[in-house]
Amino acid sequence: MAETVPTERSARLAALLARVALADQQAFAELYRQTSPHLYGVALRILRESAAAEELLQEAYVSVWHHAGTYVAAKSQPLTWLTSIVRNRCLDQLRRREVDTVTMTSDADDEPAFDPPADGPSPTELLLAGAEAQSVRDCVDTLDAGPKQAIALAFFQGLSHAELADHMHEPLGTVKSWVRRGLERLKRCLDGAGYAR
Amino acid sequence: MNLARPDRRERLEQLAAQYALGSLPARVRARLAKVARRDPPVAQAIAEWEQRLASLAAAVPGVAPPPRVWTRIVARLGLAPPAPIASWWDRVSIWRSLTAAGFAAALALGVALYSQRPVAEPPLVAVLAGPDGKPALIASAARRDAFLLVKSVGAAPVDPGKALELWMLPQGQPPRSLGVLPAGAVVRLPLAAPSDAVLAGIPALAVSLEPAGGSPTGLPTGPVLYSGAIERMY
């Protein structure tokens, strides 16, 4: 059901990446046009500062221009590959910020304020999307409240284990075990439903 | 420790999952990234998890980056390609259709994420319609949000090389731009300040057809396609 659209789109993006690897500037512009809103959205959500997200996006596309040739279509979907580049850079930067903060102030209370972005899909879309992919939603729904929230916060906001514990007012050990068990359960469920690739 | 060893498979699996999720502490994260660079099985485990979780990331609402980002990329690389902004409204709902499956999963997670938010503040809403009176776009913002959410409910596709630009229509003054609408079914247009301040005293919004990248003059140069009054729920 959800398979046909991504495949066609993935093929298009993979073709663009292949042309970018050959230094095709037009393909690069087209790739940017098709993927930058998504990647910027991902970066904004994790970094929560537009200046930082812009800077990161810029670095990411510069890197894509240089390394498009390392993309292997057989190994991952093109948008997954691009999103991972952006997400990993965002997460590295977040973690670096924390290290800097600790080094500079040695003040555990000086955590950056956690401020969830205020936009979100509408209930109508929730309903529509849910109807389209019941089994995936079921996978997430099998998670208990704690693990579900911990995974959501880590994935969408880039919170580390320690930050999760802080934010959720739970012991670090509890949160780590929620994350670990939640991911295990998600894997079994998603792989079982055939969404792994 | 050699994570690629078969008996370490379970630990590798956990670390790879948490790396892809993003929850690992700085030092563990850095160390694992280093190991992955020389250990293909470790890199593979991470890639598999990234693929698994990718369906979730696909649901994050798209936000068009400001045009300066592209300008800087091009300058950094010394390229001279054409502007990347072309028709976009024909790609409405692309991020959702991309992986409807992931969207649903992310929404389910999103509910967990947002359920902890305080009660939403009352919003302002504008329904922008064409000359035929049919709604094309809905713009909304909570009072203190420094962005507008714009949802397409029937906007016509835009030709390549053109873009839709959103304008405030202050009474007795020339229109003021709120920016070019990015691609997506539901898009987020950043504002310079909270919406109640930026839109204070503004009775209506309008959308004009402009060259890609927006009006070169700072005032609408193309036809006004849609317009509508701002309703404040406060």
What does this entry look like structurally?
The complex is a heterodimer of chains A (197) and B (234). Chain A is mostly helical and 197 residues long. Helices cover 75% and strands 0% of the residues of chain A. Chain A contains nine helices and no strands. By secondary structure, chain B is α+β, with helices and mostly antiparallel strands. Chain B is 34% helix and 24% strand. Chain B contains seven helices and eight strands, in the order H-H-H-H-H-H-E-E-E-E-E-E-H-E-E.
> How far apart are the termini of chain A?
14 Å
Oligomeric assembly: heterodimer
* Quantity of strands of chain B, as a count: 8
- Give the integer mean of the pLDDT values of chain A: 78
pLDDT below 50 for ≥5 consecutive residues: which ranges of chain B?
A: 84-100
Overall body shape of chain B? elongated
Mean pLDDT of chain B: 79
What's the structural blueprint in terms of helices and strands?
The complex is a heterodimer of chains A (197) and B (234).
Chain A: H1 4-21, H2 25-47, H3 50-67, H4 78-105, H5 123-132, H6 134-141, H7 145-157, H8 161-168, H9 172-193
Helix pairs in contact in A: 1-2, 2-3, 2-4, 3-4, 6-9, 7-9, 8-9
Chain B: H1 9-21, H2 26-38, H3 40-57, H4 67-77, H5 94-98, H6 100-114, E1 123-129, E2 135-142, E3 147-152, E4 162-169, E5 176-180, E6 186-190, H7 195-198, E7 204-211, E8 224-232
Helix pairs in contact in B: 1-3, 2-3, 3-6
